[in-house]
Design a protein that fits this description.
Largest sheet: 7 strands, parallel
Enzyme class: hydrolase
Organism: Symbiobacterium thermophilum
Pfam family, one: Glucosamine_iso
Keywords: Carbohydrate metabolism, Hydrolase
Order of helices and strands: EHEHEEHEHEEHEHEHE
CATH architecture: 3-Layer(aba) Sandwich
CATH topology: Rossmann fold
Oligomer: single chain
Protein name: Glucosamine-6-phosphate deaminase
Helix content: 25-40%
Structural class: alpha/beta
Length: about 250
């Protein structure tokens, strides 16, 4: 990828709770400055503590707009493992967010390609993302952008890597056959347009990919390494996830 490389900010915390609290404080600070901020939000196990801390703070989200990174294709919103259901449990039902301000790709849209275009346009119409919170997969994926994904990609339909489906099987009764094979995801190009990026990683299992992300050369084989090309990207880690870093 051509373009400027920037210093990647890395913050390390003693444990998952402290990492989650820091992430929440960053978003709370943004909301106090800009109550109608546009937030890009993730799902999965890593951000659960962040959502709990955000809810516990009592900060108002009444004017905020949210856009989720991704959604499984073909999974109805009522399915307990749809990302819509996750967000409903974690945030929508626990805050004063307005339903019309909560955006997530429609995995059951009759025309998924048109849904991808609609989602991109909705982000643009909202004025772009003020901040985007990311997790990172063991293979370096962000959103559902798997290794080799184009760094200029937009919101699109993707095939999920086998390793990603295996990792997500724990949410589907440990049955990989129940894990959808495709999803709609923001592309890396979409992600890079957010004004601020915040990537969270915790646990020793993430230490190898964190080392590659932070200390390795940026490469499409580690999609998260694209953060080196963003002018305001921060990685928040607990000590276990940071355990292989040399600095």
């Amino acid at each position: 990828m051509s373009g400027n490389r920037y210093p990647l900010k890395v913050e390390v915390f003693p444990d998952y709770a402290a990492l989650s609290q820091r992430a929440a404080e960053i978003v709370i600070g943004l909301l106090k400055e800009k109550p109608d901020a546009v937030l890009g939000l993730p799902t999965g196990s890593t951000p659960v503590g962040f959502y709990d801390a955000l809810v516990a703070s009592g900060v108002s989200l009444a004017r905020a707009r949210t856009f989720n990174l991704d959604e499984y294709l073909g999974l109805p919103r009522t399915h307990p493992e749809s990302y819509y259901s996750f967000m409903k449990r974690m945030l929508y039902d626990r805050t004063d967010l307005r339903p019309e301000n909560c955006h997530i790709p429609d995995g059951t849209a009759a025309d998924p390609e048109a849904e991808c275009r609609r989602y991109e346009e909705a982000i643009r119409a909202a004025g772009g993302l003020d901040i985007l919170i990311l997790g990172v997969g063991h293979n370096g994926h962000i959103g559902f952008n798997e290794p080799g994904a184009p760094w200029d990609g937009r919101t699109r339909i993707v095939e999920l890597a086998e390793r990603t489906r295996q990792a997500n099987a724990r949410f589907f009764n440990n049955n990989i056959d129940e894990v959808p094979r495709r999803a709609i995801t923001m592309g890396i190009g979409t992600i890079l347009e957010a004004r601020r990026l915040l990537l969270l990683a915790n646990g020793a299992g993430k230490a190898p990919i964190v080392q590659r992300l932070v200390e390795g050369e940026p490469t499409p084989e580690v999609p998260a390494s694209v953060l080196h090309y963003h002018p305001d990207a921060t990685v928040l880690l607990d000590t276990e996830a940071a355990s292989l870093l040399r600095r």
